[in-house]
Amino acid sequence: MTELATRAQAFGLIADGVSAGLSAPWRLYLARGCRYLSLNVGDREEWDAWRTHLGCPELSVRVYDSGGEIRRASVAEVILDGCRISVELVEEVSTADLERLLVADPLPGADER
């Protein structure tokens, strides 16, 4: 991995992922000075692919209410050459999804009873 000292190198990192077959992020934010790069992706499969490609060891999940809709934000981060890179996925979830989070080991078909 080359040092992410310039904007061209940071965008090159994304271009390398896309040329390797990953979907292009739907939003890309690069902070001035190239010390923070944020990718937003459209679904969990893309999120998993990008975090694997970048080797993101730090994962966090936040569930919040946004104007009456419940959302889950999954964020994976890694620091490469002093540049913090995050891959974020925001999904709308239903109350049924939240109930499943409270059950330690949900039984298959339990929703059908």
Descriptive notes:
The protein has helices spanning 7-19, 44-54, 95-102; strands spanning 27-30, 36-40, 58-66, 69-80, 83-93. It is built from three helices and five strands; from the N terminus they run αββαβββα. With 113 residues, the protein is α+β, with helices and mostly antiparallel strands. 28% of the residues lie in helices and 36% in strands. Strands 1-2-5-4-3 form a five-stranded mixed beta sheet.
Summarize the structure.
The chain is 28% helix and 36% strand.
Secondary structure blueprint with pairings:
Blueprint: H1 7-19, E1 27-30, E2 36-40, H2 44-54, E3 58-66, E4 69-80, E5 83-93, H3 95-102
Parallel strand pairs: 2-5
Antiparallel strand pairs: 1-2, 3-4, 4-5
Gap between N and C termini, in Å?
A: 52 Å
How many β-strands, per DSSP?
5
Order of helices and strands: HEEHEEEH
**How are strands sequenced across the largest beta sheet?**
1-2-5-4-3
Low-confidence stretches: none
Structural class of the secondary structure composition? alpha+beta
Tally of DSSP helical segments? 3
- Report the β-strand fraction as a percent range: 35-45%
Largest sheet: 5 strands, mixed
Shape: elongated
Percentage of helical residues? Answer: 25-40%
**Rounded mean pLDDT score:** 82
Q: Radius of gyration, rounded? A: 17 Å
Quick tags:
elongated, alpha+beta, 113 residues, single chain, 5-stranded mixed β-sheet
